[in-house]
Amino acid sequence: MIDIDGLCVDRSGVRVLADVSLSVADGEFVALVGPNGAGKSTLLGAVGGHLSRAAGSVAVDGDEVGSLSARALARRVATVPQETNFGFDFSVRDVVEMGRHPYRSRFSGDDPDGAAAVERALDRTRTTQFADRSVASLSGGEKQRVLLARALAQSVPTLLLDEPTASLDINHQVRTLDLVAGLEETVVAAIHDLDLAARYCDRVVLLADGSVQAVGTPRAVFTADRLERVFGVDVTVGENPATGTVTVTPTAGVSLGSESD
Amino acid sequence: MLLVGVVVVSAGIGPVHVGPIAVAKVFANAIAVPAGVRMEATALAAPWHAVEWYAPFGYDVDPLYSTIVLQVRLPRIAAGASVGFALAAAGTVMQGLFRNPMADPSIIGVSSGASVGAVAAIVAPVALPFGLGLRASAFVGALVAAVVVYAIATEGGRTPVATLLLAGVAVQTFLGSVTSYLILRSGDSIEEVTYWLMGHLDASRIEEALITGGISFALVVVLYLYAEDLNALLLGETDARSVGVEVEWTKRILLAASSIITGAAVAISGVIGFVGLIVPHALRLIVGPDHRILLPTSALAGASFLVAADTLARSGPAELPVGIVTAAVGAPFFLYLLRKREVSEL
């Protein structure tokens, strides 16, 4: 469970999140959507404890994120970053085992549940078959699944995903989100693709210019007026005949110049 | 095991050849275990004199061999092993921390600081406060440089490694100019200065080697406790934090420990290049990037490598500073590894 209240974040003197308040219930799958630079990654970073805040509070399962040690926070929240540089030659299993770091004692290295948690994470993300390969040799989609496996190995109630489908082909996009939507964990994901957000998420949070424009079900939030205003492009909102979910199509009359209106 | 073998062989090589068996016997004879404590009136004042030592081995070896091995060669070998151990361990940690296989122990200015300290001690010993000797002065110079670089690169409690790297380069350049100036002013002592800067192991007493070895070993144990955190840091600081690593604290521990280790090594040996760069790199290709394995193997390999290189340095027709040998042997080997890996990956 996540409770954000009056969150403000500054970066290099510029306010990138202004007075954001949001609650996410246990087991929900919430998408953060919005134009580039809207503050989606920043919001995830604030919940994951990766950046300092100018104001406001962020609580996970009732405790302020800033009051938890890195170790304690890593037992509650796991982040799947947008990109990770696998410059060094670790095996997939090595990377997934890093998810057990918050449970291992520095001196004895004991973690009785570790081996089982790693195997289960590999199994759930269907990465068992290349567990012993080097991560450097994997494709973008496979790397994404390995990072998801590492987050699952952390055995946390809350997962934060930054653009989990950005570098994936349509097949892997759907497979990854099928997997994520099927998790019992609470998930907050920054997602660019509005159709995918509408199809998989319980609720969407529309961000623009560092503040929340609308929160609710995809059908309630994705109205043509609102999306045109936020994205600065004419859109048609309809229903996808195959999935029965909301679909958003940018149409002619793209007016990038009116972005500042 | 490799280290023991290298030490035994190395102790036998020199102007007077001593067979490995004889060396082993000399070492065995030198082993002494505390056998008991004499109850005497002086025992309280000087308890270490009251310990009775028992030497379990009593092989019959030429006393000349004993003297050569224990008095002449062993201090130098101990210095080589300690310095190699220290530099390779520090290099491993720096490469991991900077996520850059070209990082080495001197990357945050430690060696440059030590050089200034040492050269100042040689050129103008009277100018140093507290009557610091050459070694202490080099060690202090190393730590001051590291602390300055760290302070420059730290803002609001965070120390980005990219900033640390650039601050290290800038401070190294500055300290290099200070060293150059001191060399210009060195007059008669220029030979001593140059010799120190090239890196050497022959001037060490066994006590000095043991101090460096002891400091390095203790701090490598500390670093080993952070091996997993260092593994996580290889994937980036955001990733490391998200799996529960206290990133800034861990960086501070790693930087402090490896700077002290490097300073302790440089203080007795001068600047020996390449050990801290090439040994961790070579071992990473052999045992992989996991620091739980890489750190200890790399430290031991560094010790073996430097003892071997120094043996080579002193067994030629003219004795060379070991720094010349490590660079001359290390660079081609490094290029070989680089090529081999590229070829096998393509």
The SSE string of chain A, one letter per element, is EEEHEEHEHHHEHEHEEHHEE
| Helical coverage of chain B, percent range | over 70%
Radius of gyration of chain A: 19 Å
Beta-strand portion of chain A reads 25-35%
The rough form of chain A would be described as globular
Poorly predicted runs of chain B are none
Number of helices of chain B: 14
CATH class designation of the largest domain in chain A: Alpha Beta
CATH homology superfamily of chain B:
ABC transporter involved in vitamin B12 uptake, BtuC
Pfam families (chain A): ABC_tran (PF00005)
InterPro entries (chain A): AAA+_ATPase, ABC_transporter-like_ATP-bd, ABC_transporter-like_CS, P-loop_NTPase
Function (chain A): Required for corrinoid utilization. Probably part of the ABC transporter complex BtuCDF involved in cobalamin (vitamin B12) import. Probably responsible for energy coupling to the transport system.
Enzyme class (chain A): translocase
Task: Give structural notes.
The complex is a heterodimer of chains A (261) and B (346). Chain A has 261 residues and is α/β, with parallel strands linked by helices. Chain A folds into two domains: 1-76 and 156-223, Rossmann fold (3-Layer(aba) Sandwich), CATH 3.40.50.300; 88-154, no CATH class. In chain A, 29% of the residues lie in helices and 27% in strands. Chain A is globular and about 60 Å long. Chain B is mainly alpha-helical. Helix content of chain B is 70%, strand content 3%. Chain B is globular, with a radius of gyration of 22 Å. Chain B has a single domain (74-337), classed as ABC transporter involved in vitamin B12 uptake, BtuC (Orthogonal Bundle). Chains A and B meet through helix 2 and strand 6 of A and helix 9 and helix 10 of B.
Concise overview:
By secondary structure, chain A is α/β, with parallel strands linked by helices. Chain A is built from nine helices and twelve strands.
